[in-house]
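INFO batch 0412 | record 1 of 1 | parsing
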Amino acid sequence: MKTALAHVFVLILCCCLGVDLSAQTDSLSPKQPPSDSLLKQPPHPPKRAALMSACLPGLGQAYNKKYWKIPIIYVGFGGLGYSVGFNHTYYKRYRDAIRLRYDGDPNTNDVYPLFSDDDLSTLKNYYQRFRDLSIIGMAALYTLNVIDAAVDAHLFYFNVSDDLSLRATPFMLPTPGGPVAGVGLRLGWR
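INFO prediction complete | emitting tokens
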């Protein structure tokens, strides 16, 4: 009964995965030695890419030959820099308006007479919060830039061809209680 269930399970698994069982290979054959092209590749150290990207954002991406990422990094820094400047300008305006309102000098003009004290305080806190969040966003973008350069350097020689395959090979494993059916899965390149 268990053997029949195992056979049904293998059949269902193969049908669901859409695996081609006609191209079976012997799983017990000796492994091929690494090709000479993998052994002769020049080193591409991730530490160098990370340091380059830490010194100048985008330089690590250029070292990894991922040139398309450089404009994304600088547009991100530009947008966040603009956000910091914009929010800081309005934060200073409302902060100074609160100071001028409470300076005790009757000759000072109230810049925002229609706003209450609570309104000015709320606006000051609003722009201060978004200025601070923009600064945190710039730090996060800088960190992601360095991490991205290091990860790309680690994967520099990784084969990303479209020819990936999942091979399922059914087998019978001899045991003292009788043969047991099984499935071997192998993910790799053809």
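INFO post-check: The chain has a mean pLDDT of 83.
INFO record closed
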